[in-house]
Amino acid sequence: MNIWEALFITPLTTALLFFYDILGENLGLAIIVLTVVLRIVLYPMSVPALRSMKIQRDIKPELDRLKNKYKGDRQKLAVAQMELFKQKGVNPFAGCLPQILQLIILIALYTVFMSNLKNGELNHQFLLWDLSARDPYFVFPVLAAVSQFVLSKMMLPVVSQEHEAAHQAKDKKEDFASAFQRQNLFLFPVLTLVLGFQFPAGLMLYWFISTLLQIPQQWLVMRSRPAKSSG
């Protein structure tokens, strides 16, 4: 057994089979319960990342002022932005670990579904779906994509129409960070949808429930008091 199997494949398979046994050999319910457990385990690591992203959203007007002040001088702009991040307690790398862990879990679960669970001993049927095969109704891929869209939209800065119009009038070219953020609003849901058509329904059930659970978690952090403006 290699490290990858020892750290991820075996524990996930064991946990999934445990829930499968105690839930009346219902693989769908086992996936849902396992997803809830994983979200609870990952939540403490996700909070710092969510708070950091919230602060970045709250200080967008200040970042816009810096972009106008140092327009044409990227080096000074970068220094000023890092100084502002330092003052506000923003860690640009705070979201790396949770995202990496989620990706690792997704890949591990894909391996579990494609290899370990494809046998005749398990009941793969859940409502209308064979969880070991692709979703023929495209329900889980669509639900996962919609949930991903909602989650992505929650992270967009809340800016008044007047402020947005004034900012765009001063700078017709949208900065790379803002453009990238807005593109991600549609990129991740579309990517989820495309991959969802190829993945087993069981994996897309996990993806949907996991994303759905992140929405209230993210909402709790995003509704907290905004960062105080330094200007």
Automatic annotation (TrEMBL):
Keywords: Cell membrane, Chaperone, Membrane, Protein transport, Transmembrane, Transmembrane helix, Transport
Molecular function GO terms recorded: membrane insertase activity
Xref: Pfam families: 60KD_IMP
Keyword Glycoprotein: no
Domain Membrane insertase YidC/Oxa/ALB C-terminal: residue ranges: 28-223
Gene Ontology BP terms: protein insertion into membrane; protein transport
Record InterPro entries: YidC/ALB3/OXA1/COX18, YidC/Oxa/ALB_C, YidC_ALB_C
Membrane topology field: Multi-pass membrane protein
Transmembrane segments: 7-23, 29-50, 96-117, 137-156, 185-209
Cellular localization per UniProt: Cell membrane; Membrane
The keyword Heme appears for this protein: no
GO cellular component: plasma membrane
Protein family membership: Belongs to the OXA1/ALB3/YidC family.
Protein name: Membrane protein insertase YidC
Species, as recorded: candidate division WWE3 bacterium
